[in-house]
Give the backbone structure.
Amino acid sequence: MAVRAERAPVVIEESLAAKIVRLTAKAPVHLALLFIGILWLVPTAGLFVTSLLDPSDQASGGWWNFAFQPSAWTLENYTKMFDNERIVDALIITAQVTLGATILPIIVAALAAYALAWIDFPGRDWIFLTVIALLLVPIQMALIPMFSLYNRFALFDTVPGLILFHSAFALPFAIFLLRNFFAGIPKDLMEAARIDGASEWRLFFRVVLPLGLPAIASLAIFQVLFVWNDLLIGLVMAQQNQPIAPAIASQLRQFGSNLDVLAPAAFFSAVIPLVIFAAFQRYFVQGLLAGSVK
Amino acid sequence: MSGTTFRPEFPREGGTRANPKTAAWRGLLLPLGFLAPAIFFLGVWVVYPTFATMVRSLYSDRGDRFVGLENYRRLFSDDIIFTAIKNNFLWVLFIPLGVTAVGLVFAVLTERVRWSVAFKIAVFIPLAVSLFAVGVIWRIMYQQDPERGVINAAIVAVQGVVSERGVISTAAPSTDDLEGTTQTGISLKEPVRTGEVALLGLTAIRAPEIPEGAQDARAPEPLQGGITGVVWRDFKPGGGTPGEVEAEEVGLGGVTVELREPGSNRAVERTTTEADGTFAFEEVADGEYTVAVARNTFAEPFEGFNWLGPSLITPAIMLSYIWVSAGFAMVIIAAGLAAIPRDTIEAARTDGATEFQIFRRITIPQLMPVLTVVFVTQIIACLKIFDLVLAIAPGSSRNDATLLAFEMWRRAFSGQNLFGLGSAISTFLLLLFIPFLIVNVRRFRAEAR
């Protein structure tokens, strides 16, 4: 007992000293990271605080005067925002478009990716090369002809029209990512299933899709963020039924005088992608690493 | 289509021998089934419009007349589109380098820090927010009034330590005895000798700048071996005599007074006036001096950089873009760092290499492929920027902030309806992507082989 009691503090002292040395040696790095981290949060915090301020407070000075004064905060702007039909409609449309334009391209891309990865047929590589080439076609290339086409086929200013447009432009990246992921499935597994008499459909649904879930999850998150955050397509292909970003964009003209409308709408429109991002961060990062080509 | 694709032993070649024609047909039909939806979507929404846009760029804006390359001639002779091309060039020049560098620094800093996850999330958040909301955020940050825009407020806070604003913003000499402006400082024309009194009367001072309860000015006594004087507002309601210190005329406190060598503007000594406007230089070396109210008395209050004005708008938007993209670069580079084999670094350390040498000779070369990916991704992203320009640049500076992707939208869709010119801009943009397209395709073919 006595021996232990004597030894124990010595051990603690050593590790403590070592710890202090280690921490002080790294102190500049910690401080720099702390500073940069806070710096990086300031803009978003600024929008958040601004969105919580009464219009008279917004006009009276910088938001940072109220940043540590929660008593001045009010949800008034948000209440008013949810009374604003145009913004509520825009949020509903955004949700519909996001849902449709995430599910549809993933199904279409998974089918195509399976064929490109596991079915042998002439011209397969050429098709995949075309997909890779299409990765780099900018959306601008499609706007003018599709605008005319949409007007002719009554797809302009409709939710299906937006879903189809987003889905098509999501495909090259989705096919690319999924094809590479599917191709990594062990060949033995696939051939064993084939020998057991599984049809290609069965193989696709029972083997490839379940194994491909991580890639599909990354893709889904990318797509949700991309569609929810889109401005260009919504701005061009819709007018009365615009998603949230283009709907807020029309408010920009009177910037400064309407911060009480702009700030909460911008912040709220950012909350949903942020929540999704926070919940599925891991898949997001994996997706980034798998295909940083878009 | 649900298939009879039982392949007894060699799935890839199975069947072709038995009945070449049907097997080949079936061999195509099956993949076609899987590919058909994708081909339909890509064909209608991507491939068709790409060619249609190229063709459209050869027609007039209304599409009723073939004009050949006229739209391209317009593209290259339009000043604003030229600005867009120039800005795109600047973006490609600075942004990929900047983003990669920032990402590398962050990745290296966080490498062995325990709470790095918290830091990474902070840097990553902007990536999830829409570029448009980012624009609104920075629009709030960039407001010019330092009372509202946090960036200018920060600059004021830093500057406040270095230089204070002057006590009065503007003034003029009250008599011909004085000369100079607020830019140079206001001085007596005649040099002053030690033991004399200098009277520096100023007029044209804005009334609100006179503090309430300012003391009446008083002419000080001469001081042996020194120079004394007064700076005062040489004006009272109803007039008064210029050049004389009279009752009801207030002294200007806190003003900086300089003794200059005659004939030069070099200040030998400085002092600040009392509340009644008097000042005294004691123990001055014998001689003649020019007495002047120093320039910094009139220093303008800092009114903030006009970030959203024509000259700063492009750097301002670039800064907000770096804020967004740093997280992307950081994560990719951090993954690359984690993949570098530890033993190489340990070996180098054992051999006595410094941390910096390790970084330059081992880390950077090993990271090169990853850095290249980030760099190229950012070049491509730069060519596509649209939202940020629309959200950050106010109408008055859009012509200076513009980029090709933005200009294309503006010409074709913001009410201008210049579809011919818009198509030409799109096609030009596509042309800029072609090199990357070729590299991508080559890389894949190399991998496939």
Remarks:
- The CA atoms of residues 90 and 314 of chain B lie 9 Å apart.
- Residues 1-18 of chain B have pLDDT under 50 and may be disordered.
- Chain B has two domains: 70-139+308-448, 172-298.
